[in-house]
Design a protein that fits this description.
89 residues, globular, 7-stranded antiparallel β-sheet, 49% strand
């Protein structure tokens, strides 16, 4: 998939801004499109968010995540918590 403004090997480019967003529905499973690389999250309604990060095989809990938070961490699995969560690619 060509992305406007990126040239060369996309995987070698710094991932600073999102170019796509997908609503996360369900929990406890791998986020579609994160088989090779993780994604960042936007959390509409916060609380405790449980995820599995790109470089880990264990679940991590982020507590007291405020509403409307951009989480600049790379995750592959959304386990539970919050609502109105978007995967940012």
């Amino acid at each position: 998939m060509a992305i406007a403004g990126l040239s060369g090997n996309e995987m070698a480019q710094p991932r600073v801004f999102a170019h796509d967003a997908v609503s996360i529905s369900g929990s406890g499973t791998q986020i579609a499109g994160t088989e090779n690389r993780g994604c960042c999250l936007y959390v509409g309604t916060g609380g405790s968010i449980v995820v599995r990060m790109e470089g880990s095989s264990t679940n991590i809990t982020f507590t007291n995540v405020p509403n409307g938070t951009f989480m600049p961490v790379l995750v592959t699995h959304y386990i539970s918590g919050g609502s109105d969560v978007l995967a940012l690619f």
